[in-house]
Amino acid sequence: MMKKILTLNIAFLFVALFTYAQQTDEDVDVKDPKAKAILDQLSAKSKSYSSVVAAFSYNLKNSSAGIDETQKGKLMLKGQKYNLKIAGQEIISDGKKVYTYIPDVNEVQVNWVENDEEESMFNPATLFTLYEKGFKYKHTGKSTKNGASVDVIKLYPENANDKPYHTVILYINTAKMQFEAIEIKGKDGNTYTYSIDSFKTNETLSDSNFTFDVSKADDVIDFTE
Question: Which residues of the chain have pLDDT under 70?
Answer without folding.
Answer: 1-29, 115-129
